[in-house]
Design goal:
The chain has one helix and 15 strands, in the order H-E-E-E-E-E-E-E-E-E-E-E-E-E-E-E. The chain is mainly beta and 202 residues long. It has one domain (32-200). The strands form two sheets. Strands 8-7-6-5-4-3-2-1-15-14-13-12-11 form a 13-stranded antiparallel beta sheet. A two-stranded antiparallel sheet has the order 9-10. A hairpin with a 2-residue loop joins strand 4 and strand 5. The longest helix has 24 residues, at 2-25. The termini are far apart.
Length: 202
């Protein structure tokens, strides 16, 4: 009986260690997406530690805008794989009521291969360490540029205020990432027709 209790205690301890380790190896964040003061979508992003040097970041963004005159929806999936905080692989997949777009990137020690729906290319830019996906988990304090997995190019980072960093993409959209104590709590998205927000829920 005593040995059975010891084994049960050891098993309970092992199980608690496993569950605690898993909780340390995964971090999930949920955001509300709003436009003109109305919620139009959800964004879910998760960082999973695969090993001491490898991690993956997975993002799902779903938006739906419905009214008498407008019926629009979109879904964005972005999965990135990192090794020693260097981007190794990126898979971007966008779909909407009227368009779709896929962009795949992979690191080959000296350069990145880029594959889209219509072309293949080589990107000679060296190891990428700061991307839009990574901004959800790390404040870009020591970075001057951010890489877009969608556009496969760097954009200059501008500091708008304390703990606020933004960049302007090719279509003129300004994205401003706001942090508190190193944690992202809001993204302000300034477009010609209006401003949207991505706000942290938990």
């Amino acid at each position: 009986m005593k040995n059975a209790l010891i084994r049960m205690n050891k098993f309970a301890l092992l199980l608690s260690v496993i569950l605690f380790s898993k909780s340390l190896s995964a971090q999930q964040k949920l955001f509300d997406v709003s436009l003109f003061g109305k919620k139009v979508g959800d964004l879910k992003i998760e960082r999973i530690e695969l090993s001491p040097i490898r991690e993956t970041i997975k993002m799902i963004n779903e938006i739906a805008i419905k009214s008498i005159m407008i019926n629009r929806w979109s879904k964005t999936l972005l999965n990135t794989l990192w090794e020693n905080k260097v981007l190794i692989d990126s898979d971007y997949d966008f779909k909407s009521e009227s368009a779709s777009m896929k962009v795949r990137m992979f690191f080959n020690k000296t350069h990145y291969g880029v594959k889209t729906d219509t072309s293949n290319a080589i990107l000679n830019c060296g190891p990428i360490k700061c991307t839009t996906n990574r901004l959800f988990f790390e404040e870009p304090i020591n970075h001057t540029h951010v890489f877009s997995e969608k556009f496969t190019k760097y954009f200059p980072l501008k500091k708008y205020a304390a703990n606020e960093y933004g960049f302007t993409v090719s279509d003129g959209t300004v994205n401003i990432y706001k942090y508190k104590n190193g944690n992202l709590y809001e993204i302000e998205i300034r477009k010609p027709f209006g401003t949207g927000y991505v706000r942290l829920v938990n």
